[in-house]
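Hi support team,

I submitted a single chain yesterday and got back a structure, but I'm not sure I'm reading the token output correctly. Could someone confirm the output below corresponds to the sequence I sent? I've pasted both exactly as they appear in my results page.

Thanks,
R.
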Amino acid sequence: MNKGYLIQANTEKEILQARLLCDSIKTRNKDASVSLVTKLSESYKGYDNVIDYKFSPMPETRQNDYQLYWASPYDYTITIDCRTVVMENQDSLWDYLLDHHNICFPVQCKDYRMMPLYDHKFSVFANDYKLKKVYSNMFYFDKSESSLRYFKLLDPISKNWRDTQNTMFAKQHVDLSYQPDMMHTIVANRIDVDVFPFDPNILSYIDMRSVLVNGMLKDVEKWTSMFSIWSTSGKKLKLQNYSINNTLYYHEDEFYQEKIANDFRHSREETLN
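Hi R., thanks for writing in. Yes, this is the structure output for that exact sequence:
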């Protein structure tokens, strides 16, 4: 079966983060195929495929999510934001997605304690605009007609995201920068394709950006200034005293450290040997 993971990276910093993600995937999922999509012309090692975009890329990396349907070399794809590490085996997740969905997004994320996050900031959109939120730092799609319709609708919405929000929302609710979760939420609520999982735990990951913006951490601009990060040979990861055994979207560039990257690279090598 032709299935695999797809990662986008379009800056040198993102390239480093993407390789860390790739190594984390292959450490926990030995037989996984991982492909990199990039507009950069370098030859990057460690991936099963390195792919260029089919269409001219947008300036923000995640604005190019709409291109993933055409970029993916797989019939079945899980795409993950490069600022992520995977600390779990995902065989059972794949089994569920292949059996139940053409395209699927998480509807619930967790904090570093593995407690479900209530998105206080989004509540106004749920109440005033009747939107059901999806998260987008990890999602699944296949090459079906349903998935194609989704990505075709995402195309103009992501390219014209300011106009989209200005048309839909009151001025005080319009984002000042491109927010992938909001763009995918808009599409998910507009299209006649079911992208919602039966169980909120499906595709759920730890979202440290949501932890921060929803006020769980007081008086800090970046969670990395408050937490110690521990890595042991790429097999264990801790934030303070909390062991991370799920998928972690860390968001902050400061999470990336050469020691952590080396730990995961060595752990991948040990797994494959």
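A quick pointer for reading it: The CA atoms of residues 148 and 203 lie 20 Å apart. Let us know if anything else looks off.

Best,
Support desk
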